[in-house]
């Protein structure tokens, strides 16, 4: 499974497919593929000749097509249409095949003719309802962007508070800005009338090289919103109108550029520090006695959540406008209160942007994330590569339907025969738009089968991703072909061999968060997860009815219940002590990250360092591992925690690591540093990073995620005692085994 992911960029829960929908329903996990469209693949073949396309379904010639070398014809593997090969293929034979007919090149790329040069546009939307210290950090971040972004990148600047200010980036005597009311949403046509974005002489969106000096001065002169704030009231903050103006500017600029035979791709970077309190997109009233909505308010529809429905609808319409302009939206939320990510999520999700949360613009999580965001725009050697606007298309064998994609995509509705029902995620089509695509974005494609058994020996799926390389400007089409062996459900060994438990756990997690977004009830989602575990366990475990001790898990299934046990306890599902904004941000990352990153969210990785072993070794996520003489490094993707046992903490506090005779203590304390640097270098968005000693308040981050083998009610007594009412992993497995062997009446 790992080699397939490295060579082709996909993982599948089921690498052997059943014959019909009835057989599929017995297995409990949907047919799905986790695919990373622009994954970095070593020695990936790229050719400069045009791809041979099927005239009926547009699929690309591939190793699964039947080739008649005498007649120079091929039968499409997806629609079975027989057609002639182009004249350039007249010399091919069984011994002289082009690259696309070799199994080794099931994934390859074609260079496409670039019809229009691509322009990059970045609009900064900045909240100025902040204190002076936070504003200084925002200024430093914007000035860094001017230094890092390529000189030909076109940028714009909008600041907002009580009003929305659109700044002219070039002036002769004094700076000028257009001030708009923060309570009225103006349509794009009216915004263009005020700003003249379509005019060749407009000064609101200009290349960095043309306006860097004046814009630097404008940023340095930014000040906190001058409108007075009543005592015990929040400031008027018109986030919704500011985002609408930014989307309208991009929409007008895109229309003007296309008329000039140019193809802009845009990004909106929102730096926000509090909830919207005025105009469209309002989240809460200014009266500070009214708290921002929490999960009970949303679940029960209380008065506190009265703006939730209208605000969500407003941002959904804004998402459509942004997608029309090939514009992605990136939200950098730095506030101690919620800013409305729950309502705003559709805008980020459909455009494929970034969503991150921190408490301050001075915190490491924002500073590191912002730097990585800028590096994606400017560094061709960045760890996470970002590409321009992309289109994603799926082709399937006959009788296989596409139900949808769970991931950051925008559905381009179509009446294709490949569309399946019911829709899952972004469905109703076989083509999707991605306004922003990086090398970590992973899509979960869900498929359906016919009611009647299909006796075909194999089923094929083809992914085609057309994208523009960020720095070369080349238009590329990556083609990946996947073939699945088809088995009857009676041959259970075939399904067991092809079962990928890691991919299966990730798919269930995505399906669960999708379900949560519909019902907002943890209990309902947990019941669905439990039903899935029980159903699939009965299929894949050997047992004697009514004998729990007889249950034996197959080797490629034994960790699957463990993954879902930790998922059930994670803050991806549990809402206690977590705001809707935090949950939304974590769900969004789960639905766009790679399999390895998703597994870290489900079951955090834990490394142990001791005096005898300073290289670090993986250990079980268990409270018994929390001993006094070691350092633990926990990586849950969102949190990075270095936990020191009480003995190690005492050594450090006594200064032993500073004494030459205790060089081994110094080596132990510094041991996690290299691993931390590697994680922070590649993780986007950057995680929250903390140190904690055994028994301190920050240690709860680790104790909340480990298996509570020892609790205040009892247990082995080894390691750390966890005060919780949760069942341990062993108790969970015992209950699962009892349910598996239970004979249904």
TrEMBL record:
Single GO MF descriptor: zinc ion binding
Domain Sec23/Sec24 helical residue range list: 500-599
Pfam families: Sec23_BS, Sec23_helical, Sec23_trunk, zf-Sec23_Sec24
BP-aspect Gene Ontology terms: COPII-coated vesicle cargo loading; intracellular protein transport
A GO CC term assigned to this protein in UniProt: endoplasmic reticulum membrane
Sec23/Sec24 beta-sandwich domain: residues covered: 391-486
SUPFAM superfamilies given in the database record: beta-sandwich domain of Sec23/24, C-terminal, gelsolin-like domain of Sec23/24, Helical domain of Sec23/24, vWA-like, Zn-finger domain of Sec23/24
Superkingdom, taxonomy of origin: Eukaryota
Start and end residues of each Zinc finger Sec23/Sec24-type domain: 52-89
Localization annotation: Cytoplasmic vesicle, COPII-coated vesicle membrane; Endoplasmic reticulum membrane; Golgi apparatus membrane
Keywords: Cytoplasm, Cytoplasmic vesicle, Endoplasmic reticulum, ER-Golgi transport, Golgi apparatus, Membrane, Metal-binding, Protein transport, Transport, Zinc
Location of the Sec23/Sec24 trunk domain: 120-363
Family indicated by similarity: Belongs to the SEC23/SEC24 family. SEC23 subfamily.
Family annotation (PANTHER family): PROTEIN TRANSPORT PROTEIN SEC23 (PTHR11141)
Task of the protein: Component of the coat protein complex II (COPII) which promotes the formation of transport vesicles from the endoplasmic reticulum (ER). The coat has two main functions, the physical deformation of the endoplasmic reticulum membrane into vesicles and the selection of cargo molecules.
Protein name in UniProt: Protein transport protein SEC23
Organism the protein comes from: Trepomonas sp. PC1
Phylogenetic classification of the source organism: Eukaryota, Metamonada, Diplomonadida, Hexamitidae, Hexamitinae
